[in-house]
Every structure is written in C-alpha cells, then in structure tokens.
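REQUEST ID: PR-0412
SUBMITTED BY: lab tech R.K.
PRIORITY: routine
TASK: structure prediction, single protein chain
INPUT:
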Amino acid sequence: MSVRRLHPTQPKSFAFTPENEAWAQATIAKYPPGKQASAVIPLLMRAQEQHANWLPEPAIRVIADRLGMAYIRVYEVATFYTQFQLAPVGTKAHIQVCGTTPCMLRGAEGLKDVCRKKIHKDQFHLSADGAFSWEEVECAGACANAPMVQVFSDTYEDLTPELLEKVIDGYAKGAPPKPGSQIGRQASSPDGGFTALTDPSLYDGSSVGGWKKRLADLDAKAAAAAAAAPPAEKKT
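STATUS: complete
OUTPUT:
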C-alpha cells in the first residue's frame, strides 16, 4: 500500500450543497446520541462525490467539526481507505485496477499496461486531457470475476486488456458500458457454465413424484424396523 498524502493544492473552503446538507443531517440522525462519528465514511464519500470525485482537506475539517471528531481521526479514515481520492482525478473516469492475488493471476498486469498506454505511464497522474487517471488498489471484492477494475462506484469484471480498452473508450465518448461482467457472466456463476445441478427435472417439477416415492420408501423401512425391534424391557 502506497503512502497517501493530501494534495498540495487545496481549495480555501468546503461546504455541502443545500441538497447534500439535508442528506448529511438525515444520515447523522440515523445514529444514536454519542455515536455520530459512525457517519464519517458516508459523509466523506458524499463530500468526495460533490467535489469532482476527490476529497479536499477543508472537507475533512468540516466533517470532523460536524461529527465532534478530532481532525486527525477523520484524516486517518480518509488516508486509510483507497476509496477516498486525495488528489484530483480524471473528470471522466478514475480507473482503480485491483492487483491482489486473484486478479494478478488472471491478468491484472495486462490491465495496468492498458492504463499506462491510454492514460499515463505512472499511476496517480492525469491523462494529457485531464479526463482520466488510474491507480492500483488492493482487493476490490470481486475475486470470482477477476480481473476487474472499479470506476468510481461501478465495477467492470472478467476483463481482458481489449475489454478494458473498450471500457475506457466508452467513458471517453460519454457512453460507458454496463457495469458488471464484460463477458455476460451472471453474478459470480462459474466461468464456462454450470457443472452441478444441471438436470432439468430438478426445476421442471417432473422429479417431484420420484422424491415423494423415495421419502415414502424411507418411511416404510423405518416403520418396519420399529415393528421388528424387540420390545423394551420395563424397569422395576
């Protein structure tokens, strides 16, 4: 994990928009008295989304004051989680490439090469037009569909270098592809199709009679065994 620091160029102040202010008040009210600090992550995320998808230092202080937290405590949260961007990111997309073991084994290095070619040779840098940026992150929680990337709140899974190029090109045109698996996989179903419970009779109802007969046979065997058992001796 790289060292995370606030960007040297910061706005002078931060304030939630009226809409986000109402949302913040409602979010804080969900927590019991004395537990308002539990709202720190959602408030930081909303501040980031409002501020061009990166989190400025004044927002950290505003949220700390709102929640009665020391500035350093909110700073610790903001610098710990890679979901918080501490410097300006691409205006159209910030690509977070998962580089943890499952994605690495399935081709994450090739995805990073695409980012180096199409965005910038180094992570945490803006593309020439300022539209894109990228970074490598730890596990993003879609290991079964590796390799994958996250773009803001969406994930793109089952990627190849060619498919990631299409994702980036889609964002460049303002028409990103649908999030999720890029090979049509449903949720985290097996790659290559299902290999178990494939008998159609399990789902079309035709196996119901067979199961009823099997259960009836088991009941009959149990009854016969009980009848054949010697009577229990009475204790005196």
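NOTES: Residues 208-228 form the longest helix (21 residues).
REVIEWED BY: pending
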